[in-house]
TrEMBL record, chain A:
It comes from Camelina sativa (False flax). This is Alanine aminotransferase 2, mitochondrial-like. InterPro entries: ALAT1/2-like, Aminotransferase_I/II_large, PyrdxlP-dep_Trfase, PyrdxlP-dep_Trfase_major, PyrdxlP-dep_Trfase_small. Homodimer. Keywords: Aminotransferase, Pyridoxal phosphate, Transferase. Pathway: Photosynthesis; C4 acid pathway. The gene is LOC104751082. Residues 171-527 form the Aminotransferase class I/classII large domain. Belongs to the class-I pyridoxal-phosphate-dependent aminotransferase family. Alanine aminotransferase subfamily. Its cofactor is pyridoxal 5'-phosphate.
Automatic annotation (TrEMBL), chain B:
The gene is LOC104712607. Residues 85-459 form the Aminotransferase class I/classII large domain. This is Glutamate--glyoxylate aminotransferase 2. PANTHER family: ALANINE AMINOTRANSFERASE (PTHR11751), GLUTAMATE--GLYOXYLATE AMINOTRANSFERASE 2 (PTHR11751:SF373). Its cofactor is pyridoxal 5'-phosphate. Pathway: Photosynthesis; C4 acid pathway. GO terms for molecular function: transaminase activity. Belongs to the class-I pyridoxal-phosphate-dependent aminotransferase family. Alanine aminotransferase subfamily. Keywords: Aminotransferase, Pyridoxal phosphate, Transferase. The lineage of its organism: Eukaryota, Viridiplantae, Streptophyta, Embryophyta, Tracheophyta. It comes from Camelina sativa.
Length: 548, 479
């Protein structure tokens, strides 16, 4: 199998280097001079010019018989067709159309605005950015401000100090330059120090890859791990659809394990084991286990004990642990605390040589919620240097992640400290956001649990509630008549009646025969109350219509 | 001993096969030398700000204000920001819900896409539809998204110029497709010969490859040529006959250093050709904020425009974009500013023109200095850099040098570039990283080092080269 068609048209030569020779010894580009035989001890078989010439006539025929344009739905990559991303799927498209129509047709609807509870995008719903972070970013973006005396009246002194510090870490202070493909070294140092402070275990800046949000990092790992359908990734169900979409795009197999709704979305090691063995029996090589903690869409925070079992399981089974820890700052209940998987693994005595662990973090979540910045990183530990080089190479094809996202990632891992000029106001902003989120989560959770046939686990963390709706048979039949999943049917009805946009549970996966939806806790407090009223009224009338 | 989770042998082969020379062996060695305290002149990446180019003031002011919108409420903001920057920041913030901190539409902010469409209309004289423009985190991401849609497997081939920018080879490799090379003619100033294209396609088809798309880079990277209108017509006709999507990498459209061949977009040429061809050829054009006189590489801002792509395919491309949520919003605003810069009469207009003209005129002088410098060296010939940011001189290596390279286990041009790096601190990329004809060797440098440093750089290059040529065979030339 060749990866590339290597040719030199003038001589009509085609190099038939096998795939194995190719990937082990030579690259496409060094192959280009096909007879640069100093590098290739194996004589490559050549296709003669006559064969080449005789095939040109076939070519005309084949191009004429191509009935369709190159890029049509029938001829695009089937993996692209296969992948789904429900968070921005059909319901959101309907919502956007409603929103447009509302502008001119206000009276046609029983609501006056669309409330987007489909996506964890806090600042689009009125959450304000942390001022200190933005001051630093503005100063880095327009660094000549640092030379103006008036700047001191407009910016906090620690933001000015921090901007200087950051600029000094960037070669030439050039925030408009591509950086090292892993991210600016000085910023990675700061992030590593932040991880160390969080975990009390060392972190190495060379293990950190800064990325445009956490999603590209997940894609990179999937690309690295998945070669074909025979490669599997253990994913929680329900799961954040980035994982299913990314596994589909890279042509691998999703191996599901179910979170147990009855025990607060607990993760049962026995279920993991069962799924792993079933997959192996089907000939699938399971490469990694995805854990989302705090959970998305399920909102649970894993107990440390449970995390230890997961770590041991990965160690025993030789799985890479892909730890999605983007909600690490979003914990709302006093009896739970976030522990990073790296800390848990190190506490168990597992070091660099014992297991492969990747931790993802993002600037989009937490109390910062800076989604539009596309900042994030992954910390990659327990990989051999040749594998690390491959990850670096993938990062380098995209040159680097955006610089303000990089700067912001360093800021969220090292916010103002006691004594800093901004510290007090920073703490007020931060605690205000987090305590309000906790309050909103509780309000919504209670309201949902008051609805007929609805049960909702508590939101211990993250930004979502994932209530279960026991849909009446009549509603299920009505959905089937419309060729819609029953939960999507419910969500569409909800949207049309209230303007509230939520995502059907089928977009995340659920135990067959159960129905859910995901709703963010992000609308501001007054809006949450309005949602509760509208949702309660809607649900009652829905049940009145369909109750068995 | 338990299983090790990740063995090198079990990684995705496509990942291992992918090569990206711009940040390869030479770059790593240069970084090492820099750590050891040696002065390195990085001419390996088109990264202008890293070599001292100052950002344009106006866009940085606008984006800083968008970062810190609370400044807009401060009565003293006018002391450090001009009024037109303040007005423009308010304009862009009004186009978002949630400012720079919220995910935008996965295709980019509708208001910015509208500004991009207006720019394309002004440039080409033909309408452009914002719905068919997607903003991306740099042009590279856009190229990857489109190739991901086109490539189904190894049997799908993409025509790529050789020499080429290795983004294409690397991405095709990562996606498991097949690169079908076509050669640019160095002796014809890196011209594109359509007969050559036909041969490449025919040969690929004889191998069972379905050729699906063709890439052109105009102005050329690494070769610096500007395609003529006549040449673009031939290419479009060829794509029409062979049913290929044309991917037009037009990121260097502002970087033109001669007056005979101004930049002309593939879209304009296609539309000029009229129906039926203007309705048939599928074209995707790429642009970025990283190049031109902007050079804002670190922002990761770009867009692509789709022409004649069926709506259901556009929806699929949208779906894939939505998995990445949205491109970063500050770069979207940079893009908006790039396509709608200050106008005559605006407070910042004069400064903007002064800065941008200054950069462009200096690049033009540097392009000339570099070409002339290379052509004054023994065994070096170099086509003039008509556009883009690179010189791609041919180095006629004597047999003794090739022998020495072989003994060192290096490709000859890598050997040469490493020696150059060690002797002078000039960090280049060997031609083999871009592809070149058999037995012919090149290197790529950017024309981006500061103008005042240019004479010294060219002197030290000449000194190194002439010594190298004496060492490995005096006065030898293949010509």
């Amino acid at each position: 199998m060749r990866r590339f068609l290597i040719s030199q048209a003038k001589k009509g030569l085609v190099d038939h280097t096998t795939r194995r020779q190719h990937h082990q010894t030579r690259s496409f580009l060094s192959l280009l001079p096909p007879s640069f035989s100093a590098n290739s001890p194996r004589a490559a078989p050549l296709v003669s010019l006559s064969r080449f010439m005789s095939s040109t006539s076939d070519m005309a025929a084949s191009s004429d018989s191509t009935s369709s344009l190159p890029v049509t739905l029938d001829s695009i990559n089937p993996k692209v067709l296969k992948c789904e991303y429900a968070v921005r799927g059909e319901i959101v498209n309907i919502a956007q159309k409603l929103q447009e129509d509302l502008k001119s047709n206000k009276d046609a609807y029983p609501f006056d605005e669309i409330i987007y509870c489909n996506i964890g995008n806090p600042q689009s719903l009125g959450q304000l950015p942390i001022r200190f972070f933005r001051e630093v970013l503005a100063l880095c973006d327009h660094s000549s401000l640092l030379d103006e005396t008036e700047t001191h009246g407009l910016f906090s002194t620690d933001s000015i100090d921090r901007a200087w510090k950051i600029l000094d870490q960037i070669p030439g202070r050039a925030t408009g330059a591509y950086s090292h493909s892993q991210g600016i070294k000085g910023l990675r140092d700061v992030i590593a120090a932040g991880i160390e402070a969080r975990d009390s275990f060392p972190a190495d800046p060379n293990d950190i890859f800064l990325t445009d949000g956490a999603s590209p990092a997940v894609h990179m790992m999937m690309q690295l791990l998945l070669s074909s359908e025979k490669d599997g990734i253990l994913c929680p169900i329900p799961q954040y659809p980035l994982y299913s979409a990314s596994i589909a795009l890279h042509g691998g197999s999703l191996v599901p394990y179910y979170l147990d709704e009855a025990t607060g979305w607990g993760l049962e090691i026995s279920d993991l084991k069962k799924q792993l063995e079933e997959a192996r029996a089907k000939g699938i090589t399971v490469r990694a286990l995805v854990v989302i903690n705090p959970g998305n869409p399920t909102g649970q925070v894993l107990a440390e004990e449970n995390q230890r079992d997961i770590v041991n399981f990965c160690k025993q089974e030789g799985l890479v642990l892909l730890a999605d820890e983007v909600y690490q700052e979003n914990v709302y209940v006093p009896d739970k605390k976030f522990h990073s998987f790296k800390k848990v693994a190190r506490s168990l005595g597992y070091g660099e040589k014992d297991m492969s662990l990747v931790s993802f973090q993002s600037v989009s979540k937490g109390y910062y919620g800076e989604c539009g910045k596309r900042g994030g990183y992954m910390e990659v530990t327990g990989f051999t240097s040749d594998v690390r080089e491959q990850i670096y190479k993938m990062a380098s094809v995209n040159l680097c992640s955006n610089i303000s996202g990089q700067i912001l990632a360093s800021l969220v891992m090292s916010p103002p400290k006691p004594g800093d000029d901004s510290y007090d106001s920073y703490m007020v902003e931060r605690d205000g956001i987090l305590s309000s989120m906790a309050k909103r989560a509780k309000t919504l959770e209670d309201a949902l649990n008051n609805l007929e046939g609805v049960t909702c686990n508590r939101a211990e963390g993250a930004m979502y509630l994932f209530p279960r709706i026991n849909l009446p048979h009549k509603a299920i039949e009505a959905a089937e008549a419309e060729k819609t999943a029953p939960d999507a049917f419910y969500c569409k009805r909800l949207l049309n009646a209230t303007g509230v946009v939520v995502v059907p549970g089928s977009g995340f996966g659920q135990v067959p025969g159960t129905w859910h939806f995901r709703c963010t806790i992000l609308p501001q407090e007054d809006k949450i109350l309005a949602i509760v009223d509208r949702l309660t009224a809607f649900h009652k009338s829905f049940m009145d219509e369909f109750r068995d | 001993m338990s299983l090790k989770a990740l063995d090198y042998d079990s990684l995705n082969e496509n990942v291992k096969n992918c090569q990206y020379a711009v940040r390869g062996e030479l770059y790593l060695r240069a970084s090492e030398l820099q750590k050891e305290g040696k002065k390195i002149i990085f001419t390996n990446v088109g990264n202008p700000h890293a070599l001292g180019q100052k950002p344009l003031t106006f866009p940085r002011q606008v984006v800083a204000l968008c970062q810190a919108p609370f400044l807009l409420d401060d009565p003293n903001v006018g002391m450090i920001f001009p009024a037109d920057a303040i007005a423009r920041a308010k304009h862009y913030l009004s186009l978002t819900s949630g400012g720079l901190g919220a995910y935008s539409d996965s295709r980019g902010l509708p208001g910015v896409r509208k500004e991009v469409a207006e720019f394309i209309e002004r440039r080409d004289g033909y309408p452009s539809d914002p719905e068919l423009i997607f903003l991306t985190d740099g042009a590279s991401k856009g190229v990857m998204q489109i190739l991901n849609c086109v490539i189904r497997g190894q049997k799908d081939g993409i025509l790529v110029p050789v020499p080429q920018y290795p983004l294409y080879s690397a991405t095709i490799s990562l996606l498991g497709g097949t690169l079908v090379p076509y050669y640019l003619e160095e002796s014809e100033n890196w011209g594109l010969d359509v007969n050559n294209l036909r041969q490449s396609v025919a040969q690929a088809r004889s191998q069972g490859i379905t050729v699906r798309a063709m890439v052109i880079i105009n102005p050329g990277n690494p070769t610096g040529q500007c395609l003529s209108e006549a040449n673009l017509r031939e290419i479009l006709r060829f794509c029409c006959n062979e049913r290929l999507v044309l991917l037009g990498d037009e990121v260097y459209q502002q970087n033109i250093y001669q007056d005979e061949r101004p930049f002309i977009s593939s879209k304009k040429v296609l539309m000029d050709m009229g129906a039926p061809i203007s309705k048939e050829v599928q074209l995707i054009s790429f642009h970025t904020v990283s190049k031109g006189y902007w050079g804002e590489c670190g922002q990761r801002g770009g867009y692509f425009e789709m022409t004649n792509i069926p709506p259901r395919t556009v929806e699929e491309i949208y779906k894939v974009a939505s998995i990445a949520l949205s491109p970063n919003v500050s770069a979207q605003i940079f893009m908006g500013l790039m396509v709608s810069p200050p106008k005559p009469g605006d407070i910042s207009y004069d400064q903007f023109v002064r800065e941008s003209k200054g950069i462009l005129e200096s690049l033009r002088r540097r392009a000339r200095m570099m070409t002339d410098g290379f052509n004054s060296c023994k065994n070096v010939v170099c086509n003039f850099t008509e556009g883009a940011m690179y010189s791609f001189p041919q180095i006629k290596l004597p047999p003794k040098a090739i022998q020495a390279a072989k003994q060192a286990g290096k490709v000859p041009d890598v050997f040469y570039c490493l020696k150059l790096l060690e002797a002078t601190g000039i960090s280049t990329v060997p031609g083999s990283g871009f592809g070149q004809k058999e037995g012919v060797f090149h290197l790529r440098t950017t024309i981006l080092p500061a103008e005042e440093e240019m004479p010294e750089i060219m002197d030290s290059f000449k000194k190194f080269n002439d010594e190298f040529m004496s060492q490995y065979g005096v006065g030898y030339s293949r010509m």
